[in-house]
Amino acid sequence: MFSLRITAGAVLAAAASVAGCKPDRPSADPRTASAAAAESPTAGSEIVTVTANDFSFEAPGKVPAGAVTMRLVNKGTELHHAQLIRIEEGKTMADIAKAMQNPGPPPSWARFVGGPNAVAPGKEALATSVLTPGQYVYLCFIPSPDRVMHASKGMVLPFEVTPAAAAATAALPIPDATIKLVDYDFQVSQPLTAGKRTILVENDGPQPHEVALLKLAPGKTVADFAAWDAGGMKGPPPAEPIGGVVALDKGASATFTADLTPGEYGLLCFVPDTKDGKPHLVHGMMKAIKVG
User: Fold this and answer.
1) Tell me: the pLDDT tens digits for 255-267?
2) Computed from CA positions of residues 274, 119, 243, 49, in that sequence, does the dihedral angle turn out positive or negative?
3) pTM for the full predicted model
């Protein structure tokens, strides 16, 4: 339910399925285009609501460039996230079809720029990325219990990032702490404390990484969640996903905001390794942290 399995075929098949769509339709909710900065912990950024259903997204077709906070609202019955991918200019359906013939990591023109990571049904997540003008896609790579990825069930939505107004900000929110992503570790700048916290995520590794934040159930460990996920998600989950940032390319950064309560948490990366295709958590990229 929670594994992130990114392959060239998965990304490009999803992109191909929406290549002919026009990303200029209005938002399903007129409140979603923006909100007052004073109402948000990410003051100064554009706020866009992305509604996740089983299995589709609802979101504005156009978003102004700059610092954009994606507010993911999960109205489905399964876990969902919203991976943001920028498709480089000049690429066509022919390029997509050709790339789909080649196994391995996604091509360099598919840029992973973050997005809010998974939350449980009925919950919300906030993540901010700095977006430049161009064509983008929302995707959900999480598989259902039948192991079919949500993107393959139609959970793909294109959108356009348009030039920003002169007053738009291109700076990420000021964070309370920083998590650096490396091969294969999470380096947390300082202990996290309870409250609404904004956390900067920086990918200092040589390949894409993510941070999935989990609130562990009493007596459970990060390894318990990894085993539950790998074992077909049978029985109650040993942790609740509460956000984070989906995959970021090498050198990229983003922030996320979470309302933390005291307890035990886990950080995990499910992105497949560029060398052997195994999730990074298999290589040890999972860590337990305590919120005081």
Assistant:
1) 999 999 999 999 9
2) positive
3) 0.84
